[in-house]
Backbone:
DNA sequence: AAGACGAAAGTGGTTGA
DNA sequence: TCAACAACTTTCGTCTT
């Protein structure tokens, strides 16, 4: 399988996935060949099928059939009728291909805009682009807005890149409702599960970002990391939302080091409610035996300098 | 008055029959 | 396909600082 080029972007960086029987372009995510598996597509819509195909442009399944089946340019030995027909098909082929390209260009611009609000590193933005492209080539955007799929792709990419943003954050940056982001995220990751795999996030992945949003000292941050680690060892984390655990750990750490933050403040940053923090807080304090340590610092107050830091 | 606490009812997703 | 279920949210009254 050497010398293969991606018909979409021309890159020679092509990968063969033996498990799924697909040939995948590493640069743009296009599935070039898929001989073994039939993922039955959603765009089959019986009555409306014919209409839909025309109205929505290229009937792109995973692997763009237009790129795979290049209509011959040799018109020899054809009747003039046939020739006309073939020229017609050619024209359509070109149109549909450029429509997809335009869509991807537009998406790329939009994605950059959203991502810039979240301080996401370039490599994650690129990953999100690739995920979006795969979604497009598999027809997963149909029935969804481009923005919501982008939001889902970006959320997925931040998780893959081990720098997860919360659903709240992605929702705010993209203007897509939080539930909607979650739904599309779940949908596209399920549909693309053979190409991308996403591990559950860990509370520790949120600590650095949250603690800096809360202006906590490095000492308090290290403390919260310790708490999270212990919680993990004691299996207090399974089935719980990782952001809630991170939030509670930060809250506890803030008390222990005399840098008290209110539950409200921590909840805001972590995108959970105070109730959730209280629940995790209780569990953590019970199991980790932190009661006496907390009592010592109960009078901890903020310095003026810290207050200043919060006002920007 | 602000923050913390906890009960109770509601939401949306997962799971297993 | 449906009901049971767990985690989380919303709302609200009460206690604490």
Residues:
């Amino acid at each position: 399988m050497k010398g293969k080029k991606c018909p979409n972007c021309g890159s020679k960086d092509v990968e063969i996935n033996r498990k799924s029987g697909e040939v995948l372009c590493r640069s743009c995510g296009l599935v070039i060949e898929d001989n073994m598996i039939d993922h039955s597509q959603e765009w089959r819509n019986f009555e409306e099928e014919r209409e839909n195909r025309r109205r929505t442009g290229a009937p792109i399944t995973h692997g763009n059939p237009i790129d795979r089946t290049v209509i011959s340019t040799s018109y020899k030995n054809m009747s003039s009728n046939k020739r006309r027909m073939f020229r017609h098909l050619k024209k359509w082929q070109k149109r549909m291909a450029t429509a997809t390209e335009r869509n991807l260009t537009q998406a790329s611009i939009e994605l950059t805009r959203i991502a810039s609000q979240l301080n996401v590193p370039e490599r994650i933005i690129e990953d999100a682009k690739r995920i979006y492209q795969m979604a497009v080539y598999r027809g997963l955007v149909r029935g969804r807005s481009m923005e919501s799929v982008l939001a889902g792709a970006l959320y997925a990419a931040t998780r893959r890149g081990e720098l997860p943003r919360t659903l709240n954050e992605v929702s705010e940056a993209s203007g897509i409702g939080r539930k909607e982001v979650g739904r599309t995220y779940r949908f596209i990751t399920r549909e693309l599960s053979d190409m991308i795999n996403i591990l559950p996030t860990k509370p520790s992945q949120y600590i650095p970002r949250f603690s800096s949003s809360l202006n906590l000292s490095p000492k308090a941050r290290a403390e919260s990391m310790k708490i999270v680690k212990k919680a993990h060892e004691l299996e207090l984390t399974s089935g719980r939302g990782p952001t809630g655990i991170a939030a509670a750990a930060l809250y506890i750490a803030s008390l222990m080091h005399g840098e008290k933050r209110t539950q409200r403040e921590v909840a805001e940053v972590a995108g959970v409610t105070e109730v959730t923090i209280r629940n995790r807080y209780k569990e953590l304090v019970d199991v980790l035996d932190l009661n006496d340590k907390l009592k010592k610092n109960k009078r901890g107050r903020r310095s003026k300098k810290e207050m200043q830091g919060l006002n920007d």
Residues 80-116 of chain A form the longest helix (37 residues). The beta strands of chain A are 14-17, 22-25, 31-34. Residues 239-241, 244, 272-273, 275-276, 279 of chain A lie near DNA strand C (CB under 10 Å from a C1').
